[in-house]
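My current task is to audit a protein record that another person submitted. Please read both lines and tell me whether the tokens look consistent with the sequence. Do not assume that whoever made the record got everything right. I have pasted the whole thing underneath without changing anything:

===
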Amino acid sequence: MATTRTADAHWEGTLLEGHGTVSLVSSGTGAFDVTWASRAQTPEGRTSPEELIAAAHAACFSMALSSALAKGGTPATTLDTSVEVDFQPGEGIVAIRIAVAGDVPGLSGEAFAAAAASAKENCPVSQALRAVPIALTVR
């Protein structure tokens, strides 16, 4: 059965001078201010679509890797994932970088790297973002 999640955005004014709010409706966990400046320049306490994509990608990748490791008989004790999303005004999202470190008892570094590479290719957010180059660093 499919699961649907909802987020809403409210925007006022022009692109450059305007401002908005993004709300996580399904979970009710928060509303975040957003402006063009927070997207193209400095955040100043506001988020951007790219930061929200980075958060979604980090969570999805971590879940996919955790699942694969457990199914392979070597569940992770911890996984720490960081995702960077590069936005270039006039071009859009131009690059995504995933960095992951994990504590996985009984698993070699090579096997961890292979599982991470598979998670990068197969997590639903990675699949949705295939138009953008995605790099992976395993620590």
